[in-house]
Amino acid sequence: MSRESTRRFFDEDEEPAHVLQDAPLAERMRPRSLEEFVGQAELVGPGSLLRHVLERGGQPGSLILWGPPGSGKTTLARLIAERSQGCFVALSAVSSGVKEVRDALEHARRIRGKAHTILFIDEIHRFNKAQQDALLGAVEDGTITLIGATTENPSFEVNSALLSRSRVLTLGALEPAEVAVIVRRALHDAERGLAGLRPIVSDDLIEKLAKASGGDARVALTALEQAVLATAAGETGERRVESVTLEQSLGRARFSYDRQGEDHYNLVSALIKSTRNSNERAALYWLARLIAGGADPMFIARRLCILASEDVGLADPQAMVQAAAAAQISHLIGFPEALFPLTQATIYLARAPKSATVKTAFHAAAEDAAKTPNAPVPLHLRNAVTPLMKAAGYGLGYRSIHDDPTAEAEMPCLPPELLQHHENAEIPAGHAPRRRAGPHTSHPGS
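Structure (tokenized):
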């Protein structure tokens, strides 16, 4: 096991490893203590259970850290190892297999009694069942403390045997204010950060970068470093970073897109209204704008699912199946590949016939319910679960349509006060005809 991947923290006869100066800024600025850690206050903030355990040198047990990219999973794992004074072994599920796992476990057994091994596996969801099963014995008998990091839901991606032996900690995306703290720290840190380059970045640009990073500290620091290095020093030696440079470093579309701002909701509104209007090309344009801007694929999928029922509904029940499948697949694979099921669902919904039956029918029922909030359930529709209820007439006169087809027309199912107006009324159709193939759309299957 190489020294780079395995080391004992705080040994008296060795110096702590230092990050190389040519490492990326995000790696150089990785917090060295819990006090430097930004965000996730519920997990590691003062008074939290994990903080309480670590400050007393205790072992937190095996953990699965679940959160989006750049939220601090790897950093937190390293800090836990440092606080626990353990031997930290880091593996990536992308480049490691069963052999590397077995080597790490063998190393842990050799040093057991001298040091406790904390095995960190980044992107543990990429391990298959056999690779995850290889960890079970060592986790169960205490040979290692496992810390797995994943961006995917552990309930689906980590096998149940490992989950039952671990505690899942959920990390959220960093808030823009938290990303801004990390950015400013990097600008002012002369030892590990960018202060030696004398960068000048306005507060407005820092706030815009923090918002555009989508809660990912690594994205923000990478863009910041590229922007500072791309900015020439002036006569005084200062590097005044301009908006256009930061845009190019982060990506113009992402930089101009604010997930919490008005434009976010304007874009998705345009997507939904264009799809409702059966304008396929326009719908795909607005979908592409959302994707290029870094919108959450599940946010888009949820809106398409709503449209499938609200605006297509019974005119084409398969629309809901298509939207739900797109949402499920997008959840499983994420971007960039999620653009395919989202595009397919958008095309299908734009081409589908439109109907507001579901929405208008529910609103009509809700209006009736609001007018008669205390109307009793007719006795024949009540369930007689006790002899007393049966004696009171519950269920008396109920006719099942399976045994008595005439019950559909003859047995009332509404409260008496609504019978006169609605018992035989048709549910409003609210149907809009399918668009003909034209400049905006085409026939399904074309």
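Confidence is low (pLDDT under 50) at residues 1-17, 433-446. The radius of gyration is 30 Å.
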